[in-house]
Amino acid sequence: MSDIRHSLLRRDALSAAKEVLYHLDIYLSSQLQNASLSVGDKGCTDLLEEFILQVPKERNCQPKRLNSLQELQLLEIMCNYFQEQSKDSVRQVMFSTIFSPQGNKADDSRITLLGKLVSMAVAVCRVPVLECAATWLQRTPAVYCVRLARTLVEDYCSLLPGSIHMLKQIFSTSSRFCCQFITAVTALYDLSSDDLIPPNDLLETVVSWIFEDPRLILIIFLNTPITANLPIGFLELTSITGLIRWCVKAPLAYKRRKKSSLANGATGTKMGKENALGVDNDCHTLYSKLHLSVLQVLILLQVHLTEKNLFGRLGLVLFDHVVSLVEEINRLSEELNPLNVAQEMELSLDRLAQALQVAMASGALLCSRENLRTVCSRLPHNNLLQLVISGPVQQPSHAALPPGFYPHIHTPPLAYPGLPAHPVQTFIPGMTFPYRPIH
């Protein structure tokens, strides 16, 4: 590798970067064929960091910076490389070698270049790059994944008005990337502040994807071998928890944003207020559609968990996340004054109750109703939520339930021991979801 480096130092920046890609491809292809691949090879890492990421290895050595045109040319070269490389294993290893964080000073340059590459791949529809990015999102700590998601949102929802259609079109070309992108943006936009409310174009795009095909957000889960201990600090297997958070917190979060806008005079004119209210109304309709789609996905999960022999063993909606969501609702309520957000709070709690009910029935949420009652005890009263958490404390084992059956919420009345219990509600796979969402 040292001989290659000396040769590269005599080249211009773009030519050197192209040469590194060429040598890396030969080296990694050879290692794959010999089954002796070492992705973390020091020589490979040093070359790509110095000549592709432009991070100098010597203190007195000035990096060969790429100007804007050269950078665009490099991105095009990389897009074409991944497009033309016929072996998926080589593509994936090459992508991982270049863009997997190493915990060093080159990581900022690495993630910045990745964001530009994936953004270009979205614009020109380079499916191999998007597929590699989907795998990268699955295997990389979430802190880096949300940075990539933020870059794409800024490019297609902020910097280039009207370009959102480019992002929408990848739904029909790379469903794996769409699935992981949704998981990343729900991790990024948690509605904890006005700045972390998803932009309208992003919201409309995500809702249109999921409403058209609710199974989209299950693609990674259905095609990933499930281990006993899922890695900590990475994206969730599905975006279900994040989407539930969006639907439940949206009424209160948008109320808070409207209050902040009025206080700051951002919508000081009558026309501005009407426009702001119109946008919020459109968003509330989208959240209602999203809520329905999430409930449909939860129902589908029961079949898939049973097929994978994970029903009652793997909770895709973690109880700890439910606890956090309840705490966030309480904070929002206190911040906004419960007397002024009664309608919004009712809608949030109705959605929470529906999500909890269907998640428990489908096996996505594993917890006792006693624990659920304890967690929800500080929430304002809500009839539907009270119905959901008022079931028996002791539940039969999920594993003992036949597939397709909903566990009892209420035990038969003790005053009528001779009467048979009501039949358990059965959900038939493939049927349209029989309930309407809370509007």
From TrEMBL:
Pfam families named among the record's database cross-references: INTS15
InterPro entries from the UniProt entry: INTS15 (IPR027844)
Protein name: Uncharacterized protein C7orf26-like
